[in-house]
Design a protein that fits this description.
The chain has 411 residues and is mainly α. It is 79% helix and 0% strand. The protein is built from 17 helices and no strands. The chain is globular and about 55 Å long. It is found in: Cell membrane.
Length: 411
């Protein structure tokens, strides 16, 4: 009897270059939560204040956001493979430099270079996988989603495990793994890009910011990202756990983000308007942040708030970025570049503001500040609905959903 290939077998039968890029994607996405478990250790070993250590997020996100304005222009001219390799090379160099640093100011600076490399790599990886994968676009997207979920979940766990040795451990580990990914892409990706180059004008993302729909969503996402990164970057301090404990907590957070990004958000947007999903889930996130503030003295209460927050953040990440891609006739790469550059400002400023509020007022104040910011995001979405009619036109195609997940979670 002839063997019938199952869907799983078809997905797993991919060219070597797909596995090379997929592996590098896992490592790149690990960088999102890698430093979370070692923030207290960095503060102690380098005699830094909590605010100084939070600048590790600020420099990374600020440069990532600014670089997003130019990555589509770069990759459309030098090709996907070169863009991937430049991004990976920068991550290797700057993560290694951070591991060898002797003061927190140097680590902050090298995290900025890491952010530049991550922007170049992540913005190009999905198109490369889709272009090279066998079994059609759907198979490629499942692989990309799997890499994304693994990276977001494993990052904090690896950071916690290596952080028990030294705060330098996660940086050395990233450098080694990314170097392996670099070599794999050099050897396996091939000489030609798998996707056709379509030159993008340098001014395109800047002009896109003037579009009312993009502007509305970007403004809402600035306030949303404040809440996101208060929960992610500030919580390790009041939790009071060691590196491995923090790694396990944020491993659970990463799994939560991945599950709702990949499976729950598409179900919701198939049943409800995207703006309705945002208007409902954003206030739920505000309530979760308020609960974190009220239960800040309870370690268990904070852990529950982190996990529930991850579930809500996964939905919002995907729906926000799907909305950006559906809101205008602009090319998706241009719209997402403009949107990402603006929204990352919220993520960049939130961590140091949170620690300063905790010093000036109470340890719970950052969570109340974050909840207020999320409510402002809700107001912006509701007030700007007249600019977002196209957003509610229907469910996104599978390829669009995957691109939204990738760009949304790359924050």
């Amino acid at each position: 009897m002839p063997h019938v290939r199952t869907e799983t077998e078809s997905i797993l039968r991919q060219p070597k270059q797909v596995w090379a890029v997929g592996f590098a994607c896992v490592i790149a996405f690990m960088g999102i939560g890698l430093v979370d478990p070692i923030l207290p250790a960095i503060a102690a070993d380098l005699e830094a204040t909590p605010t100084e250590t939070e600048l590790l997020f600020t420099s990374y996100l600020l440069i990532t956001g600014l670089a997003m304005l130019f990555t589509s222009w770069v990759s459309s001219r030098i090709g996907a493979k070169r863009t991937l390799l430049i991004g990976l090379g920068l991550i290797v160099a700057f993560s290694l430099a951070a591991a060898l640093s002797g003061d927190v100011e140097a680590v902050i600076g090298f995290r900025a270079g890491w952010g530049l490399g991550n922007a170049l790599f992540i913005s190009t990886a999905l198109a490369t996988i889709v272009g090279a994968a066998s079994g059609g676009t759907a198979s490629a997207i499942i692989l990309y989603e799997a890499a994304l979920g693994l990276g977001i979940a494993i990052g904090p766990l690896l950071g916690g495990l290596l952080g028990t040795i030294s705060w330098r451990g996660p940086f050395f580990g990233t450098a080694v793994l990314m170097a392996i990914g670099f070599i794999a892409i050099v050897v396996l990706l091939g000489k030609e890009d798998a996707v056709e180059r379509i030159p993008v004008k340098l001014s395109a993302p800047f002009r896109a910011m003037l579009n009312p729909a993009i502007g509305t969503l970007a403004l809402a996402a600035v306030f949303y990202n404040i809440g996101f990164f208060v929960l992610l970057a500030y919580t390790p301090f009041p939790l009071g756990m060691n590196a491995i404990g923090l790694g396990l907590v944020f491993f659970g957070w990463g799994v939560s983000v991945a599950v709702t990004s990949v499976w729950v958000a598409p179900l919701l947007t198939a049943a409800l308007r995207r703006t309705t999903v945002l208007a409902v889930v954003l206030p739920l996130l505000a309530l979760d942040l308020l609960a974190a503030g009220f239960f800040i003295a309870s370690q268990l209460g904070l852990v529950i708030a982190v996990i529930v927050g991850g579930l809500l953040l996964g939905i919002l990440n995907t729906v926000f970025t799907e909305s950006v891609m559906e809101a205008t006739d602009l090319p998706r790469s241009v719209a997402s570049s403009a949107y990402s550059a603006v929204r990352f400002l919220g993520g960049a400023v939130a961590p140091p503001i949170a620690t300063e509020l905790a010093v000036l007022f109470l340890p719970s104040t950052p969570y109340f500040f974050a909840a207020g910011s999320i409510l402002l995001a809700t107001v912006v979405v509701i007030a700007g609905r007249r600019f977002l009619r196209r957003v509610d036109s229907g469910p996104a195609p599978l390829a669009l959903e995957a691109e939204a997940i990738g760009i949304g979670d790359a924050a």
